[in-house]
Amino acid sequence: MATSTVTRSQGPGRPDRPGPLGRLGRLARPGGAAGRTPPPAVRVRRQLVTSPWLFAAPGLLITAVFILYPFVSTVINSFTDRRTLLPGHYVGLANFRELLHDDMFWIGLRNSTVYVLGVVPALVILPLLLALLVQRNIPGITFFRSAFYTPVVASVVVVGLIWVWLLDERGLVNSLLEAVGVGKVGFLSDQWLLLFSAMTVTVWKGLGYYMIIYLAALANVPRELHEAAAVDGAGAVRRFLTVTVPAVRSTMVLVAALSSVAAFKVFSEVYLMAGPNGGPAGEDTTLVMLVQRTGTGLSGRVGYASALSLVVFVVAVVLMLLVLRADRREES
Amino acid sequence: MPLSRRALATAAVIAVVLPLSACGSGDDTGGSSDASGKVEGDITFQTWNLRANFKSYFEGVIAGFEKKYPDAHVKWVDQPAENYADKISADAAGGTLPDVVNVSPDLVAPLAKAGLALDLDKSASKYKKEYLPGAWASHQIPGVKGTYAFPWYLNTGPLFYNKALFEKAGLSPDQPPKTYDDLFADALKISDRTDGKVATLANVPTIEDFGRYGVPLMNKEGTGFTFNDAKGVELLTKYKELYKVKALDPQALTATPESSGRKFLTEAVAMNPGSALDLGNFKKQAPHLYKNIGITDQITSTGHVNMYVMGVMVNSRTKHTPAAVAFAHYVTDAEHQMSFAKKVAIFPSTAGSLEDPYFTKEDGTDETRVRVAAAKSLKTAVNYTPVLFSDQMKTELGNSVARALQGKQSPQEALDAAVKACDRLLQQQG
């Protein structure tokens, strides 16, 4: 291909005009520095090898600096007693041994696990139902689609603060509950209600995001399948269970995987609602909150926080593999 | 010339490694501790949430300094109040700590231990006599020789109370509690007479409360905490009683200073500590509260209120030690502290300044009455917060207090656990 281009550029009537690979064409002329320069075919091959790397270089560089280096650094730090301002010494597995005896680590692991168990089923099922609802092309539906998506683009801090005001002892929700005779509920003072309130915010904020993913999947479900099922006498629920769910099953697995990893790493919602101490006596602390609390500040224990981070990473990866494995087993 | 694969790989490695070499905890090069040379060079000065209200004041101070020392130039940066410690630690770890930094004693302790704060006993001892002895000592760290920041402004912080809520509970709005015993008695009355609808406080006791109650916080050597003694247990037991009858807000266990402030603003609680800046906020956001606002001294059973000390630290790695020391002294000298005190309700830490008629003579207004009373109480005030009490220790104490208030542990068990955890953290600090 390169040769034909060279030939064309040297065609009659256009002796000096370089083609798309004009520089290469000039070098290919007899009498050039052919003795020291490799033949054109070799140079083209080299360029074909190097060019993709040059294009990828900015991305690779960013990945190396902001992902690879911090990750490697975290692994190394987890075996040291490094502090924010003091370089650490190698301590072997001491940090990992310590976290096994750290009550707060087990509280964090428990809360992060409860969070996954509470949030993931809701984020797999509710957005699907919402997507079915807004999938129909009826006048004004675009407004509802946008409305459901709004929490996704809203700042988590703003959303968290609004929910704190709503659920406060003197907030709107408690005022309504008091008005109907239920009495005040300690959404922001009870350990479990606090965690449940934070889960509600996570689900509410995530609905729109996963709804969009489901909408894309639902658009690919052939209408004929629904029609055939309807002809066979299947009702709406039956059609949902036997046509819709199998058709979007792989999307459901994707949503489960994404939401379980995100739920396990939850920080902002719990931090905003339960406070920096992680609820009463720190009982609502999640693992990532513990990493933040342990590793930051002027006296931060960077080594220990790194060991905690590694545990979070390993559990998140295992969680994702479990979801994918369950899907594969079901498929086979 | 086309790049060979090896050349490309080398370039990539260099490109990755070079920026990374800037990471880490900074190098040991840079600063000298000798502050006697010519005052020159570009320095950076960092304040803690002061730009919004005092921009013109600091611009004037900097202009004055640059006029006095034409070869020196000061760049002023200001950081928000939240996460200030995180910002400093990131800068310190990255080797980008400004030359002159606004700090508090608990912030300066880890910086001094890491060798990042200039020892003023060596570099600026000639200025020592200009400051109150107690204020100069406030930036000394147990176990580390030296003084690591110029003392700046002092404050006791007023305690606000809602006169209308006091009246509603049948208490005299002009006789707020002074000691912890008064506070507990009044809080129980308010709770009882409002059926638990009005709480007196929105936050759980902090280390300063233990100090003001007369609990010994640390041993004399500064090597261990002692707030789990009988007096500490007594204080926590009384708070537990308040929590049980809702004299303490039900959300107190998860409260932050901001959330407590909001509770006071919405008149859900009767008392809240604050600063002089809060008055403007009350006026704007809660006119009804502002109409009924009462201002009193901090609650104390020792006769000594808590003193908050601000300092100005010089980065030991500064390239312009004479300029940085000169500027830190310039900002904190008697003249500038006095002019700053006239802008906002703070008090100078320079010797003799508190004897100025501005702090001793009343003109009949509430403002001067509060100022004169605060200046008087400052003379015997104590900085109760142990310099070595880190954020992690505050969390440990907060969690233990919460466990005691919830009844999950007895006050004695909770405080024993807190002392054990804080001692462990203290040892880990080295």
From TrEMBL, chain A:
It is a multi-pass membrane protein. Keywords: Cell membrane, Membrane, Transmembrane, Transmembrane helix, Transport. The keyword tRNA-binding does not apply. Residues 109-323 form the ABC transmembrane type-1 domain. The keyword Ubl conjugation does not apply. SUPFAM superfamilies: MetI-like. Residues 19-31 have a biased composition (Low complexity). Residues 1-40 are annotated as: Disordered. The chain crosses the membrane at residues 53-72, 114-134, 146-166, 192-219, 240-264, 302-324. InterPro entries: ABC_transporter_permease, MetI-like, MetI-like_sf. One of its GO terms (cellular component) is plasma membrane. Its main location: membrane. Residues 1-10 have a biased composition (Polar residues). GO terms for biological process: transmembrane transport. It is found in: Cell membrane. Belongs to the binding-protein-dependent transport system permease family. This is Transport system permease. The lineage of its organism: Bacteria, Bacillati, Actinomycetota, Actinomycetes, Kitasatosporales.
